[in-house]
Amino acid sequence: MSAPRFPDWPHLYREGAADHPVLLMLHGTGSNEQDIAALAAELDPAAAVLAPRGRVPESGMLRWFARRGEGVFDVDDVILRAGELAGFVADAREHYGLGDRMLIAVGFSNGANIALATAMLHPETVDRVISFSGMYPFGDRALEGTLSGSRFLVLNGRSDPMAPLPSVTTLVAELQRRGADVGQILRDGGHGVDRSDLEAAVDWLKRRP
């Protein structure tokens, strides 16, 4: 499935205050752009919202990229889809007249993984990420190239079976190795967006990293 032309890619856009960022909201498996867009109001009610729809079907649910099993990603497809999302963001900037406004990718679960992958592969397009219950999206493959100037907030539950702690540890180490500024919050519990995660994300956004 090739990437659609921008107008044909299902997505939601809501304008916000010009002095607030654009939140690129990326949903998890089985969800959609409407669901994840609602989270934006809890993070920054004045932000613009750009929420595309994942386009990879799996058992009737939508995802951002293919996988071979739980936690086993098709890394080549991750790379392909990250490139498509980067292209979508570039087109959205032009289409909606966003200019050089700060854009922050906010993803949950599979949405966090594509946000991370896109920022790690295309930092010129996405260089700010809030990752809720995400993990390292490239398996045992390491990447090169600097992420200096990129900033990430990584929020996870210590006992999350869907985003295992060893993969999260790999993610943070790889981001730091490549020069990114990384904030990490580990809490008790598993997969999901905890109230403490939201509070940490709001604080991070208020500081406008």
UniProtKB/TrEMBL annotation:
GO molecular function: hydrolase activity
Coiled-coil regions listed: none
Protein name per its UniProtKB record: Phospholipase/carboxylesterase
Originating species: Arthrobacter subterraneus
Domain annotation Phospholipase/carboxylesterase/thioesterase: ranges: 18-206
Domain of life: Bacteria
